[in-house]
Amino acid sequence: MRLAVIADIHGNAAALETVLADIAARGADATVCLGDIASGAGWPRETVEILQEAGIPCIRGNHDRWISEHDPGKLGMQDRIAYEGLTASQREWLMELPLTLEPAPGVLAVHGTPSSDVQNLIEEVVAERLRPAPMAVLRERLGGAGMAARVVLCGHSHRTGMVQVPGGPLVVNPGSLGLPGFRISREPAHRQEAGTPHARYALLHLCGERVGVELLAIGYDWDRAARRAEEHGANAAWPHVIRTGLLPESA
């Protein structure tokens, strides 16, 4: 079985359309989405429509939850754009998405960790950057459900990575499909940059006891996505990171 894994779209329908076309060209048998679907300075309504029309199973991410849980007047820029762009039924659909999925036997899909949508699974913050978490921390975050799985799929951090846990699962983060960098000011303050503007996703090859993984970076019309963010009046860092994969201070 070939399973495509997408995560952290953040309303970037331009990237999503290109990646889904690439997934189809590679002949994947199924696709799963790990959440943070609509929140962003892009096309929130269209992003949800694409996923719904394609029938792609999705997990609820923290931003998918925040759009409905938080006071609309106090939402941050990306969540406010999503709230205003989505229909009431789309917001309800996002809120009712499951926290975990099993897209294939022995494969556990989560947004952050099996028990939290705001905790990174394979990284921790060191000097305001994401670094690999110690194995003991990773095992604790996986918990019983994660350690019992063959493969655990996670998103949230936007950082592409793989870790084979001794005596436990292979953990795969495909990276962000639609937002290659961000800066978080709340504690623990940190930043993440992919270094290029490509749309990331993963393709798992599940062949008996063997698991192969392709970590893919796909070119798409990121200038179109950046212009869309500018039309929304997003802060300057948002279109910059979409065009470059870097925050302005790094470039």
From TrEMBL:
Concerning its family, UniProt says:
Belongs to the metallophosphoesterase superfamily. YfcE family.
Cellular-component GO terms for this entry: cytoplasm
Q: Which residues form the Calcineurin-like phosphoesterase domain?
A: 1-183
List GO molecular-function terms, semicolon-separated: phosphatase activity
This one is known as Metallophosphoesterase family protein
